[in-house]
Amino acid sequence: MYGARALEWRRKFVGLLPEVERRKLYLRKGFSDIFEFAAKLAGVSKEQVQTVIRADEKFADKPVLREALVSGEISANKLVRLVTVATVENQEFLAEKVKLLSNRAVEVLVRDMKFLHVQENGKQDGLFERKDVDGSLRAQKLEKLKLSGEVVGKLVKLQNKGLDINVLILEFLEKREKEIEEKKMEISREVAEKVVGKRNANVAVTRYVPAEVRKVLREEHGTKCAVPNCKKMAEALHHTARFGLVKEHNPYFMAPLCREHHEIAHAIDGKVLERKK
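Request: output the structure for the sequence above.
Response:
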């Protein structure tokens, strides 16, 4: 209890530093500058002070986020991560959701928002810089495929025979997708029948995900997080249709997620949000 209260007061202290700097209130306490004031009273580093002051400036036109900073309701460490994606329009959404998220999950949320912005605007810069013009991006992608010498050799032989290997690969991929879809449809029907049977027998459906559901989801998504552009390992099977309501493990409404995206998914869920308040 004491530790939580101390952390809350430290967040409030940090949030008020920009106002202390504007009004030079540290001078009344005999400190030479804001950095000495923050370090001696709360152990706040110079870098932290500079960061929170910059964040306060960035949130000047975003009162919801600025209030969260000043009140200490959300830590400055979380809020500064939002600077690059926060807008007047999304400030309320961000302020509400980041309360529930860990620092790592906030970082992932910001990264996803940046990526979506790049896609929507058709522009890329920095980490998302386009390299298609000189072909280097294409070469990098081919290298990442890590094709074995045997596979490359067979593809070259087929191409030398006049066969379009792009068509062959597309046919294989489409066949794979069709097979997975058929499996999911069959499993979905079986799941629905089992749920009805257990309800009629007044037997509870457990949260254990059946092996066949896990298998088909692994075939579809592999071992990585299902969120586009996320390269982290999946750590949880998320029910997009909340299990608490539907009481079933339908592969059409499930996806493997990394820890951070699973956290974000639940933060966005209104009912989960209400339970955590």
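Residues 123-133, 272-277 have pLDDT under 50 and may be disordered.
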